[in-house]
Each structure stands twice: as C-alpha cells, then as structure tokens.
Design a protein that fits this description.
Layout: H1 19-35, H2 42-57, E1 61-66, E2 78-84, E3 87-95, H3 104-112, H4 114-129, H5 147-160
C-alpha cells in the first residue's frame, strides 16, 4: 500500500472566512469608482462610500466627515482619522450595535478605506471651490438603506445623467 503525505496547506481549515470578509475593501473601491462617472455631485460619492463601507463592516452607520466637524451621532464606536501625509482631511466614524466587539479585521477595513475617503473628501472640496452650483431642487432625500432602496438610488443616479423623464412607482411605507 502506498503512503500519501498531505501537506499542511492541502488540509481543510477548521474555520472558513465569511464571504463578506473575502469581499474586502476592494469591493468598496470598485463600487465608488463605478459611481464616479455617474455622480454629478461629490456628495453622491460620499453617500456611496458610506453605504458600501457600512455594509462591508456590518455597522449600523458610517459617516465620513470633514476635519473640524463633530460627529453627528453620540454613539460612535470607532473613529479613524483620514489624512494625506501630515494634512488631516477628516475622519471616518462607525457605529455598531451595543455590545458588539469590534475586531481587528473591522478596524483594518476601516483603515484601508482611508485613502479612498481622502479622495472623496478632496473631490468634494474641489467641487465646492470651483463654485459649481449646489443643487437645491427641494426634493427630499430618499430615506433607507435596504438593498431595494440602494437599487433605486443607483438607477436614479444612472438616469440623472440623461435627459429622460422618469416616473418612479411602487408601494410606500414598507
């Protein structure tokens, strides 16, 4: 009978990394990069960044804020500064469910998102400095972050770059 040796790499690990952890920060970068050409306003990039990072790290909320501004929430669990060289640009605040342990992987994901956050903040500053008019059409923001609402937001952003008239229909209050 022939004896077969099995290398440690060939053995199956007793644990498996969850799919959302394999997805990693690259998915956040890809989502924000995909939204960039469609976003007429940098605030849409900020919103996309916050939504994608919140989903990735399973936080209740994520806020990217400018330097010198205070967090809008009192229950911030993790704050990581966003800087380029010695220039402080802002911070990323993440809020988690009470009692949730924030592990090293989660902190690493937030820290890995800092360069992208810096790009978003710099684009917003450049947009403000250019004197481009801020759109104040009086429309209320879409509230919600479930997958269906995110899909509606993505479609609105895509169509907003065109001259088409769009009617959005569907049930409300669900």
């Amino acid at each position: 009978m022939e004896q077969v040796s099995v290398s440690p790499r060939a053995t199956r690990r007793p644990w498996q990394r969850a799919p959302e952890r394999r997805r990693g920060i690259a998915a956040v970068i890809a989502a924000v990069a995909a939204a960039a050409p469609l976003a007429r306003e940098p605030r849409l990039l900020r919103q996309r960044f916050e939504d994608e990072l919140r989903e990735l790290i399973h936080a209740r909320a994520v806020e990217l804020r400018d330097v010198g501004t205070e967090p809008t929430r009192q229950d911030v669990s993790v704050t990581i500064d966003v800087a380029v060289g010695s220039s402080m640009l802002g911070a990323i605040d993440a809020v988690f469910d009470p009692g949730r342990h924030v592990d090293d992987w989660t902190r690493q994901c937030i820290a890995s998102a800092c360069p992208l956050a810096a790009v978003v903040l710099v684009l917003e500053r450049a947009h403000r400095a250019s004197g481009a008019p801020v759109r104040t059409d009086g429309a209320a923001p879409i509230i919600g972050s479930c997958p269906r609402i995110r899909l509606v937001r993505e479609r609105i952003e895509r169509v907003a770059a065109t001259d088409f008239t769009v009617l959005v229909e569907g049930p409300i209050g669900r």
